[in-house]
Structures are given as structure tokens and as C-alpha cells.
Design a protein that fits this description.
By secondary structure, the chain is mainly alpha-helical. It is built from 20 helices and six strands. It has helices spanning 14-20, 23-26, 30-46, 52-71, 83-95, 108-144, 164-188, 208-214, 224-229, 232-258, 286-309, 323-347, 352-361, 366-375, 380-397, 406-412, 420-423, 426-431, 441-456, 460-466; strands at 149-154, 157-163, 191-192, 219-220, 266-267, 349-350. The protein has a two-stranded antiparallel ribbon. It has a two-stranded parallel sheet with strand order 3-4. Strands 5-6 form a two-stranded antiparallel ribbon. Helix 10 (232-258) packs antiparallel against helix 11 (286-309) and helix 10 (232-258) packs parallel to helix 12. The chain is elongated.
Length: 468
């Protein structure tokens, strides 16, 4: 029997029940539901709405249900329409009439708002930790490859020489920003909706500040209508997760390119590759490709919830039930992708010699050759044209600027001397770029120090929680 069945004279059509029910997916936050109920009855007893004996009996029943679900003794089935009804119905079966007092001063609207916020908050912390693990792996690679030269690219064309440390350091900054966004979301979720009722609060003398403190929130929400209809934090989370996936996808795209026979910059470990059913020579970067592909799945979740919410009047509407499946799926997708990417990156082999040779053969030192002329009194615009002609000569002779004989340099411009080869070596091109944020060794040492200090800091999300 439905917990709300008093108003109705016949049972819900089975198809309607199945369409309306959410227990197939909202069972995912049974822990949060029970945690919220324990806080609620603790507050009810404090306010004299329940007796201490009733409180203890209900909490013991709830803790028993939690234990039995966790160990598999109690199976969550489709007999109830949602996890809230399932827990309450089982509580009544276990402790009798006292269990019917659990819902005093509470609506399913503020209950589900609390459960979802608690669940998302926990997942934000978990995703934040996974990103930190990824950043630690990136930092390790940065530390090991400060002298691994490679071409930097613009428009997928070789541009200027950098180091592998500097290149992947760009992703360190991206994922660092991702963590910052997650912690911003965590901070804005620091209000508790429990006690808002269906939309207009309740006549019971609830202590919402006390309930909020029991659940590690800084304060209760300040408008009961907004409390039960707010899904901003889910939109923010899905937006942040979409950005995480975009960053992962960009990195995967580079790894896929670097893994080709044409580049051979990297070799992906066998554990993160697959073969072909017909071509025995193939070793495919499937994990990188799947992460790239699943990015669209997370984007879809964001667009879906934005579309769902855009036309909803205050306060709660059943449309909002659509927030859960897509959010759960996006969270699981992102967590899996971060973990797999971290493992793939940690086992990947970098072909350092190939990277350096590619930088030399791609005329990435052309700008430095132009700077050489500028330092010898040639106007930059003239130097630019001279080096362009030298590059054409190299293409005709199928050689790099490093291998072009000095007499060929002097045919085009007599200013060149023997020191041109030192000026355009990979070491010189990279090592003299030492403004902060550049790939030179002094600049990278400073950045690595900053990155190390960042990784040693206590997580912002943990700090927020500790202050409650």
C-alpha cells in the first residue's frame, strides 16, 4: 500500500506506477536517506515532538535497515515507488506504530532535496580526490621530463620547441582549475533544505539550525520554496564535470595522435590497449578513444537538466525527478574515466629521442634563428623573411636548420656565423626561455615547486567541512 494512499480509492495503474517510480535509481542514495532521517528524528526529540524512547527506537530501526541493505540481507525491490517510501515502510514493519512518526514535520520534497544534496556533496569529495591522484601522476611526469625536448604545436603544426614537462604541465593547470570549481560548488552547497516541508515550511517547532549542524551543513536554507526546487548545484556539478571531461578528451586526443606510427611519441601499455579481430599488427588506443567518446555523454546530461529546469514554475514539480539518473550516470562516467586515464598515463612509455628529433626536423627553432639575426642588428621583419627563405632551402635539401651548412646560411644572409648552431640548438631554444610560465629550466623549477606545494595543501573541500 502507498504511504500516500488515503486520498485515493483505487490502486495506481501498473504502467503509471512504473513510469512514476524512481526506486530503480534513487536507491543509490539509501545511505544519505537514512542519515537524513536519523538527524531529523534526533532534532524532533530535542524539540519535544518525539520522546527520547521513540527517537531511540526509530534510530535503532533505521540503523538496522542500513546495515541489512549494506550487507545484502535486505534487498531493495520495486514494491515502493522511491527509496524514501521503501525505508519508511520497512521501518514500520520492524518497529510498528512508532515508525509512522518518522515523517513528522517533513515532506518527500525536502527529503529528496536533502538526499540529493548529501549524495552530490559526497561525490564532489570523491571526484576531487581522483583529480588529485591524477595531478600527482602528472606532477611526477613533469619532474622527470624537464629536459625531454619536443615540438610545441599551434594549428597541429610544429611551432616552437618545448619540453614534455612543460607540455603536460598545461594539463596540470587545467585539472587544478577543475578541482577549484568542485570546491566552489561544495561551498555553495553548504545549506540544508531539511525542514522546508513541501514548499511552505511546517507548523511544528523544528530547529533547522540543529538539523543542519547534525548533517555537517553551515546553515539551513532561507527560502522553503527555493529549497525544494533548487537544482542549481546539480547544474553546476554537471557543468564542472563537462569541463573535466573536455580536459580529459583533449589529453586523450593528443595521446591518440602521439601513439600513431607517424608520431611514435608514446607507447600505450598493453593493459590499456586492445587489438584487432582481423589485423594482427594493430594495437589500438581504445581507452583514450572511449574517454574521448564518453565526453559527449556527460555534455548530454548537462543539456538535459538545463532543458528540464528552464520552464518549471515554483516550487517542486515531478519533472525534477529527471535530475537523478543523468547525474548518477555522469558521476559514474567521470569517476571511471579519471581513474582509467590516471592508470593509462602512469604506465605509458614516452619515446624521448623521437620527440626531440621531431622538434629538430619541424623547424621549431626558426623563431630563434630570426632572433639571432635581430640580436645582430637585422630588423625583425627582414629577419623573418630571411629565415623563411632558409626554411625553403632546407625543404629543398631535405634537412633541418641544424644540419644546413653555414655557406647556405651565408648565401642568404652574410650576418650568420658559426655561433648560429649553438643559438638554434634545442637546449638553447628552450633553456633561455625562463620567464615564469615558460619551458626554461629556471621557470620550470619554480613552477614545479609551486605545484608541489599545491599538492601538499589540505583539500579546500576538507577545510570547508572541518569548519562546520
Amino acid at each position: 500500500m502507498k504511504l500516500w494512499g488515503g486520498r485515493f480509492t483505487k490502486e495506481t495503474d501498473e504502467l503509471v506506477h512504473n513510469f512514476n517510480a524512481s526506486i530503480s535509481f534513487d536507491q543509490k542514495f539509501y545511505r544519505q536517506d537514512i542519515k537524513g532521517s536519523i538527524a531529523h528524528v534526533t532534532m524532533l526529540a530535542k524539540q519535544g515532538i518525539l520522546t527520547g524512547q521513540e527517537r531511540d527506537k526509530i534510530i535503532a530501526g533505521l540503523e538496522g535497515i542500513l546495515k541489512d541493505i549494506a550487507n545484502g540481507t535486505l534487498k531493495i525491490d520495486g514494491s515502493q515507488e522511491d527509496i524514501h517510501s521503501f525505508v519508511e515502510a520497512n521501518l514500520i514493519l520492524r518497529i510498528g506504530e512508532t515508525g509512522k512518526k518518522l515523517h513528522t514535520g517533513r515532506s518527500r520534497n525536502d527529503q529528496v532535496a536533502l538526499d540529493m544534496k548529501l549524495f552530490v556533496r559526497d561525490e564532489v569529495v570523491a571526484i576531487n580526490a581522483l583529480l588529485k591522484n591524477l595531478l600527482q601522476e602528472i606532477y611526477q611526469l613533469m619532474s622527470e621530463h624537464t629536459a625531454t625536448f619536443m615540438p610545441g604545436f599551434t594549428h597541429l603544426q610544429k611551432a616552437q620547441p618545448v619540453t614534455l614537462s612543460h607540455h603536460i604541465g598545461a594539463y596540470f593547470e587545467m585539472f587544478k582549475r577543475d578541482r577549484s570549481r568542485l570546491c566552489d560548488i561544495y561551498a555553495r552547497m553548504d545549506t540544508c533544505p531539511l525542514g522546508s516541508g513541501a514548499l511552505a515550511g511546517t507548523t511544528y517547532p523544528l530547529d533547522r539550525c540543529y538539523t543542519a549542524s547534525l548533517l555537517d551543513f553551515g546553515s539551513p536554507t532561507l527560502n522553503s520554496m527555493d529549497s525544494v526546487s533548487d537544482r542549481d548545484y546539480i547544474i553546476e556539478l554537471l557543468s564542472a564535470l563537462s569541463t573535466v571531461m573536455m580536459h580529459l578528451s583533449r589529453f586523450c586526443e593528443e595521446i591518440i595522435i602521439w601513439n600513431t606510427n607517424e608520431y611514435r611519441f608514446v607507447e600505450i601499455d598493453d593493459a590499456y590497449s586492445t587489438g584487432s579481430s582481423i589485423m594482427p599488427q594493430k594495437k589500438n588506443p581504445d581507452i583514450a578513444e572511449l574517454i574521448r567518446g564518453k565526453t559527449g555523454r556527460v555534455y548530454g546530461a548537462l543539456v538535459s537538466i538545463l532543458t528540464t529546469m528552464k520552464g518549471l514554475p515554483l516550487a517542486y514539480n515531478k519533472d525534477m525527478q529527471e535530475d537523478k539518473e543523468l547525474t548518477f550516470d555522469a558521476i559514474d562516467t567521470v569517476k571511471g574515466c579519471i581513474a582509467l586515464f590516471t592508470g593509462m598515463l602512469s604506465t605509458m612509455k614516452f619515446n624521448c629521442d623521437t620527440m626531440e628529433e621531431s622538434a629538430k626536423n619541424g623547424f621549431t627553432n626558426a623563431t630563434d634563428a630570426a632572433d639571432y639575426l635581430v640580436n645582430h642588428g637585422v630588423p625583425f621583419r627582414d629577419a623573418h623573411g630571411i629565415i623563411g627563405r632558409l626554411v625553403l632551402t632546407c625543404i629543398e635539401k631535405d634537412c633541418s636548420l641544424d644540419a644546413l651548412p653555414l655557406d647556405e646560411y651565408r648565401k642568404i644572409c652574410p650576418v650568420f656565423g658559426e655561433d648560429i648552431y649553438e643559438a638554434i640548438s634545442m637546449e638553447t631554444c628552450v633553456n633561455k626561455r625562463n620567464t615564469i610560465g615558460a619551458p626554461g629550466p629556471a621557470a620550470m623549477d619554480e613552477v614545479l615547486k609551486i605545484c608541489k606545494e599545491y599538492l601538499a595543501q589540505k583539500d579546500l573541500c576538507e577545510k570547508e567541512k572541518d569548519t562546520l
